[in-house]
Write a structure and sequence with these properties.
Layout lengths: L8 H28 L8 H24 L6 H28 L9 H30 L5 H19 L1 H4 L5 H17 L11 H31 L10 H24 L3 H19 L7 H16 L3 E7 L6 E7 L3 H12 L4 H5 L1 H6 L2 E5 L7 E9 L2 E10 L7 H47 L10 E8 L7 E7 L4 E9 L3 H18 L6 H12 L9 E9 L4 E7 L4 E5 L4 E5 L20 E5 L5 E5 L1 H4 L10 H12 L4 H16 L9 E8 L2
Antiparallel strand pairs: 1-2, 1-5, 3-4, 4-5, 6-15, 7-8, 8-9, 9-10, 10-13, 11-12, 11-14, 14-15
Length: 688
């Protein structure tokens, strides 16, 4: 299917309408020329009627497309468009009449061809005015669409379409069929003119303007109808385009709807202020309902509340005060038409007056929503006080003042009560929404931190056939600061590390990631444990905050020599089970945490240990969360219990030893207790 560009529809219809009008002008002038010279030009009146119908249809298509693009315009703009079109057509028609008045004694005055030319100009402008105004009235009629109204208008359009072609039936004669059709259109126009629901929505000022515009439309339609009829009655050689049921029906519809609109608007003027007030109240209520948006604050709601209350009660001055957290003091956050000294003086006067003083107390405020009455002041004689409440807690109070006595009636109080209630709900929703947003953001950040931390802990622990190794880590919060990892230099040499960052949560996890980066950078240098910790301290001292440090133990394992070399930086001493003595002991060598001493003297606080392992030996590396785990009696799990557990299960595999230790720790603190610190450990068991 071929689709024509929407942008060119108006241009095409305008061009076709102009060409059709020129064709109509040529045909009619040719016929008149033949009548004057008693010649048969071979052009019958049917050509005029057909061209007239085509011209009407093109005008309808053009204005229907043009007006539909501006259907969201205000009522006043639609009426102005109709009045401006009518005024233009009327001015041109008046200038034509003035032109003939000035030519009254000249030969051109009686020239039938010139008269018919101006008649066709007048007819074209009149048709343009009537068609465009009818379609503008359509948008006013269908402002509040109902099925019945839509069907009425659709039927009216069908009737108008049929009336276009009626000229082909009655042969452009004034007969009973024409009269019956015109009466039917008059009655239908009256029925449609009852749809004036748009008028109450005009403001007082807009109604006065609309009265002026409607008067112009009525005058223009009446004047143009008079000019067209007068032409036919006064000229011997003429083409009668006005005895057309369609054009007369449009005259009737435009005039009747304009007159009805004018009269109803005029009678609505006395009630305009009341309706405007109700409309403003409804708009203010909607603003209060929609005032809370993410990222905004309560100030916007309170600002709208002040304006709404003052507008509803015609208030002369007002202020709104909010209670400060955990105190009885208040602060003024909104103030209208009153100076600060006046407000403070009035506040003291009201607080000292009965019954306002009792109402402003917290206890009384919880029982009552508002209070109003007279106040003994030289300017203001009426006061209305409303409490803003959230969950039965008084958030603040709004003070409304008037210069007249007993200035607040029941209707004013009811609408203000609605505003205050909606504002309280909006503020509460705002606070709940902000809290939910913060919680959701925090949850997302924790999920990201958890994913990052899981990626920092190794998925594989390096080992060979000479030993087995298992690891475990559980954070007390969503993320933690414990860290362990392994690195394989070659077939027989390995590096092992376990560490614990001071603190918990996201900051500890961030520092843990820094430790991981330092480990991967330094381990490739194949340094001795003391050298490794010295350089790690130097690197971390530049990025750790002053109140943060990291404890760690670094091991070098050589399975070919069956040798273990290690150094401890303030970390928990390694638990070692000696298979030869069948006893567990702690490898307690001196060492200070990374980041505590941030200078070249740090290496002096380190000590390096060395041992040769035997098959069956077990080494347990852990963080302080294991030994400091507390039960309900505030008793720690401790080093001794950890050694006892290893003594009992040293013959098991590393995985079973790990599971046993974790089970014993959780059993010690209780199933319903939450860990106070992160739990991490690595278990190494040496084989043949």
């Amino acid at each position: 299917m071929i689709k024509f560009p929407q942008a060119h529809i108006s241009k095409i219809t305008v061009i076709l309408a102009i060409l059709t009008w020129l064709g109509l002008l040529f045909v009619d002038l040719a016929r008149i020329f033949g009548e004057i010279n008693e010649m048969d030009v071979g052009i019958g009146p049917e050509f005029t009627w057909i061209l007239e119908i085509i011209f009407f249809i093109l005008l309808y298509l053009f204005f229907n497309h043009s007006i539909s693009k501006h259907e969201n315009d205000s009522f006043l703009n639609l009426i102005w468009r109709a009045s401006s079109t009518g005024l233009t057509a009327t001015v041109v028609s008046f200038l034509i009449a003035l032109f003939y008045f000035l030519l009254e004694d000249s030969q051109l005055y009686g020239d039938p061809l010139l008269r018919n030319f101006f008649y066709h100009v007048n007819f074209a402008l009149t048709s343009l005015f009537l068609v465009s105004t009818s379609l503008l009235w359509k948008h006013l009629i269908l402002y509040q669409k109902t099925k019945a109204v839509v069907q009425q208008w659709q039927a009216f359009e069908v009737i108008l379409l049929l009336s276009m072609f009626f000229v082909l039936i009655n042969q452009n004669t004034f007969n009973y069929g024409f009269i019956f059709g015109l009466i039917f259109l008059l009655i239908y126009s009256v029925i449609l003119s009852a749809n004036l629901k748009w008028i109450p929505y005009l403001t007082f000022k807009e109604k006065w303007k609309s009265l002026l515009f409607l008067a112009i439309i009525i005058f223009s339609a009446a004047y143009l109808l008079y000019q067209l009829i007068e032409y036919v009655l006064q000229n011997e050689f003429s083409v009668n385009l006005t005895e057309n049921l369609f054009i007369m029906g449009l005259f009737a519809f435009v005039l009747i709807y304009s007159i009805f609109s004018f009269l109803v608007t005029l009678f609505n003027l006395p009630t305009s202020s009341v309706f405007e007030q109700k409309l403003v109240e409804a708009i203010n209520f909607q603003k209060l309902s929609q005032s809370i948006q993410p990222g905004e604050n309560e100030e916007r709601v309170l600002d709208i509340l002040m304006d709404s209350c003052m507008s509803a009660a015609y208030v002369d001055a007002a202020w709104l005060e909010i209670k400060l957290s955990d105190t009885e003091d208040t602060t003024v956050v909104q103030q209208r038409f009153i100076s600060k000294p006046e407000q403070q003086a009035l506040r003291k006067l009201i607080a000292a007056s009965k019954p306002f003083g009792e109402f402003l107390l917290e206890g009384a405020g919880e029982r009552m929503e508002y209070i109003h009455g007279r106040v003994n002041h030289e300017i203001y004689h009426s006061v209305l006080i409303f409490h803003l409440k959230i969950n039965k807690t008084v958030l603040g109070s709004i003070f409304l003042l008037k210069e007249v006595k007993d200035g607040f009636n029941k209707e004013m109080i009811n609408i203000i009560s609605t505003f205050v209630g909606q504002a309280s709900i909006s503020v509460e929703n705002y606070r709940l929404l902000n809290q939910a947003i913060k919680n959701e953001r925090y949850k997302e950040e924790l999920e990201i931190a958890q994913r990052v931390q899981r990626s920092l802990l190794p998925s594989i622990l390096h080992h060979n056939e000479s030993f087995e190794i298992e690891g475990f880590s559980a954070a007390a919060d969503e993320v933690g600061g414990d860290y362990y990892e392994t690195f394989q230099f070659d077939e027989h040499r390995f590096a092992l590390i376990i560490g614990d960052v001071s603190g918990k949560g996201t900051s500890a996890a961030f520092n843990m990631s820094q430790m991981k980066g330092v480990f991967h950078s330094l381990v490739q240098l194949q340094l001795r444990p003391v050298e490794f910790l010295d350089k790690a301290n130097n690197a971390l001292s530049r990025c750790l905050e002053k109140n943060h440090f990291i404890t760690t133990t670094y091991y070098l394992l050589d399975t070919e020599r069956k040798e273990l070399v290690f150094a401890r930086a303030g970390h928990c001493p390694t638990l070692y089970f000696d298979s030869q003595t069948d006893v567990s002991r702690f490898l307690d060598i001196k060492g200070m945490g990374l980041g505590i001493v941030r200078n070249s003297h740090y290496v002096g606080f380190l000590e390096e240990g060395q041992l040769n392992y035997r098959p069956g030996d077990v080494m347990v590396m852990y963080t302080d969360g294991i030994i400091e785990a507390k039960n309900q009696d505030n008793e720690e799990f401790g080093y001794d219990r950890l050694a006892q557990v290893l003594n009992q299960c040293h013959g098991c595999s590393p995985g079973e030893i790990k599971a046993t230790i974790i089970r014993e720790v959780y059993g010690f603190i209780g199933k319903d207790s939450l860990p106070d610190d992160d739990y991490s450990l690595m278990v190494v068991k040496f084989k043949e």
